[in-house]
TrEMBL record, chains A, B:
Record's keyword terms, sorted: DNA-binding, Transcription, Transcription regulation
PROSITE patterns: HTH_TETR_2
Membrane spanning stretches: none
InterPro entries: Homeodomain-like_sf, HTH_TetR, Tet_transcr_reg_TetR-rel_C_sf
Protein name: TetR/AcrR family transcriptional regulator
Organism of derivation: Rhizobium tropici
Gene3D superfamilies given in the database record: Homeodomain-like, Tetracycline Repressor, domain 2
Amino acid sequence: MGRSQLEKQKTHERIVTLAAKRLREEGLEGIGVADLMKEAGLTVGGFYKHFASRDELVAEAVESAIGSWRRQQEDKGIDPRSISLDEYVDTYLSERHRDHCGEGCAYAALTADMARSSDTVRAVATEGLRRNFDAMTARMPKPETAEARRKAIIASCLMTGALGLARVSNDEALSDEILETVRSFVKELPQAE
Amino acid sequence: MGRSQLEKQKTHERIVTLAAKRLREEGLEGIGVADLMKEAGLTVGGFYKHFASRDELVAEAVESAIGSWRRQQEDKGIDPRSISLDEYVDTYLSERHRDHCGEGCAYAALTADMARSSDTVRAVATEGLRRNFDAMTARMPKPETAEARRKAIIASCLMTGALGLARVSNDEALSDEILETVRSFVKELPQAE
DNA sequence: ATTATCTATAGATCTATAGATAATGC
DNA sequence: ATTATCTATAGATCTATAGATAATGC
C-alpha cells in the first residue's frame, strides 16, 4: 500500500470507468461505495482520497459514460463523424446494445436519473445532449439546414425512447418489434417529406 | 386507532396512489417506507399489514401509475379512445407534463427502473406497453393495418424519448425545442409517406 | 374477539472518517 | 516526509418485526 502518483491517477480512472458501467446498469443510486471499490480490487477507505463524496464520483462517472462511445471509436482509430446514420442506427438499436446497458448509451440508461440529479450532473448531461444533437445533425443531408437539425432531434428522441421501451418489455418478440420498427424508420428519415 | 375494513381499503388505496406519485418523482428506489407512510398521515408500523414487502408496494404502485392517465380521463367522464392523436400529443409533450413527473406517464418517468425491476413489475409494464401501443394504433388512420401499428410504435417511442430528454436538459430553450419539434412531427405522422 | 394502526426497536446497509501501514520521491 | 491504500468503526438511514392500543363488528 502506498503507490505512485501515476498509479493513483490510473486507480482514479479505473474507479470512474467501473462506476460509469455499474451506474448505467443499476442506476445512479444503485451500487454503493464499498461494493464498487471491492469490484475495483480496492477497499472503502481509499475512496475519499479520490472523491469528496459519492455525488462527486457520480458526476465524473456520468461525464465518462456520456463520452464513452466517442472515446471507444477514437481508440479504435475511427472518427465518430465518419460513421453514417445507417451504421449508427444499426448498432444503437441492436439486441446487443439493449442487453448490455453498462457499456451503452448513458441517455437511454439514465434519463430519469439524470433529470433528478444535481445541477452539476444536469449541466454535464445537457452539454452532452447538445453535442449528440449536433453530431446527429451532421449525419443528415444538408446539415446546415433547420430541417437537418429537426430530423436529428427526432432521430435522437426516437432512438433513446425505443431502446428504453425495448428494455422494459420482458416479451422478446415485442422488444424486437420495437427495435426493428424504429431502425427502419430512422434509416428512412433523411429521405422523408 | 383501529379502523373498519372499508377504511383499511381506502387507506391501502391512498398509500398506493401516493406511492405511484412519489416513485415517479424519485424513482422506484427513491422514497422510503417510513417517509411515505408519514406523507400519507400514517406511521411505519401499519405498512406491513398492507404489503408483504416494499417490493410488493412498488409493484402495485407501478400498476397504478401505468393506469393513472386512463383512470383520470374516465373519472372526468371522458372515453380515452375519443381523444385524438393531436390532443394526446399536445398534453403529453407539454411543459406541464415535463414539469410534473409525479402525475405523468410512468414509462417516461420510470423506463430504466422498470427494465431493472422484478419479473412481476416487468410483466405489468410489458402488458401496459402493449395496451399503449394498441391505443395509439387506434388513433392512426386505418387502425387495422400494419402501417398503423408501425406508426403507433414510432409515436410512442418518440413521445417517451422526447419527454425524457426534455427533462434532462437544464436549458429550458433546448428542452422546449425538443418538445416543440417532436410535437409537430408526431402530428404529421399519420399523413407521412 | 378481532384487527387497523401506533410506538419502539432490531438488524442490515450505506456514507464518511480516523488512524495504521507501506510504498514513493525529494 | 509524504501519501495511497488499508482496517475498523461511528453515525445515519432504511426495511421489517414485536408488542401495545383503541377501534370495529359478531
